[in-house]
Amino acid sequence: MQRRPVGASGLQVSRIGLGTMTWGEDTDVEAARAQLRTFVDDGGTLVETADDYGGGRAQQILGGLLRTIVRRDEVVLAGRGAPPPGSHPSRAALLDGLDATLRRVGVDHLDLWQFPAWDPRVPLDETLSAVQVAVYSGKVRYAGLVAPRGWQLATVAERSAATGNVARPVSAQVEYSLLARGPEAELLPAAEHHGVGLLAWAPLGRGVLTGKYTDGTPADSRAASSLLAGYVEARRTERSARIVQSVLTAADGLGTSPLSVALAWVRDRPGVASAVVGARDAAQLRASTAAEQVVLPAEIRTALDDVSEPV
């Protein structure tokens, strides 16, 4: 996999990232082991995790794998920051949460520490000062935001500039796909202006864009027995059907998979640093990493742009 800088920063990541949201739940230790080994062998570097994935189990699994099958310096770790449950939101709580993450993963630093875009419980200056402390202590290399609005990203970027740019966000992780192009209205222009790179979450529309839900929900799919079911049902619309059909048609014409078409579209959108995918097993992940070899012709990209144009 090729690598890209995240925004205007010196941080480089693989164009496809590995999300660990299913680890500890739908993905057990052995399946996670196969995923991480496959991902790194294919040239992947960006691994995204969060405190609440599997109730903390995902980070524990990841830590065990970093000590056994891959080296720490082979991956770029992106972890989400939040005060521990039950704690009073504050700079101290944010730093305690960071220490807890580092303990679970068993590392001395995160390459990217990401925060909820706007937490009204924590004064912004306290959040920025927590990032400064974490960077100066060596526990964090860069900071980013999770699901910000355009004005929120701009506010954080401007406020951090006044503190010497140490806490300046370099990334914004947000849902972005052919089915979810909302970030283009405000967030992407703000990110481009402030030198922030997009980490596109759910680039496959949580599986909808692969076409597997076109004729209903398979009994063995995640959507059949999880919160994903509501998401899938909400996208049984005429617009979504047209988009999915266009992806299927493009895949047929290119002799590739719908997954590769949908993922390549997101990967090559302006401002995107990496498209973060999740997988149930190594075979499913390998299908995503194979999309790295797919380049969409201009006419197909234009057709997909048109059919998915936001209302």
UniProtKB/TrEMBL annotation:
Residue ranges constituting the NADP-dependent oxidoreductase domain according to the UniProt record: 15-307
Gene Ontology CC entries for this record: cytosol
Gene3D superfamilies associated with the record: NADP-dependent oxidoreductase domain
A Pfam family: Aldo_ket_red
The protein's name in its UniProt record: Aryl-alcohol dehydrogenase-like predicted oxidoreductase
